[in-house]
C-alpha cells in the first residue's frame, strides 16, 4: 500500500481530497504495523528508522508529524491495540499514544480510515462526517520534545498532545482463565462486515494475560460474564473516532482508555488501552 503513494507524482498535495488524505494515513498506519513487529537492537530507534518513509509520504494537507501521528487527524493513527501482553519498557521509548513503545503485532480498526468505491456516494461518509462534527475530538495543541534536529526522529519524555473530546468514566475488570487473544479474531473478522453489539476493551498491559470486560456503569451491571471483582478499576474513556461503515453494519465508536499520569504537574493522562462501543 505504501509504495502506491511513494511512486505517485509529487504535486505538493494541491489536489488531495479528504478521501486521499485518509488513504495516505491508512498507508502510514501500515508502516506503523510493520514497525511494531520489527525487533531493533536499540528499541528507541523505531522513529528514526521510519523517518524517511514519513517524509516520503507527507503532504502539506496531512499537517505536522507528531511522534507517529499526523495533526490533520492524529486519532486515526491511535485506533490500535497490542495483540499480545506488553511489558512496560525499562526506559522511555515514545508517548503512550504511539505504538512505537510496543513489541510484536498490533491490531487496527481498519474501517476507521476506510475509503473505497463501495461507500463512495453512499450515506456512510456523510454519517461519519456528522458524527465527527458533533462528537469527534479536536487537537488543540502539541508539545513534542525532540532529541535532536530531526522532527521525525526520537522524542523525549514529556512530549504531549492537548485535545478536547467527549469522555466519561469507564470501569474495567479481569476475566480469570480467559483468552487474551480473542479480541484480535473478533476485530479482524469484522473488517468490512457487521459488528456484534456490546462493548469491548483491550488493555495495553495485562499482567494476568487474560481478557477484560468494561462498563460505563460503576457496578458493571450490564456485564454478562464472570469477572474478578477484586480487579475492578476506574479509568477515563475519550472517544476518538467512529468506523466508516453502513448503518446496518453497526459501526463502532473507538475510545482511548486513559489513566492520570503519575508525578505530572499538569492534569495529564496516558493511554492504557482501547475500547469500542455502540
From TrEMBL:
* PANTHER family, alphabetized: DOMAIN PROTEIN, PUTATIVE-RELATED (PTHR33112), HETEROKARYON INCOMPATIBILITY DOMAIN-CONTAINING PROTEIN (PTHR33112:SF16)
The name on file for this protein is Uncharacterized protein
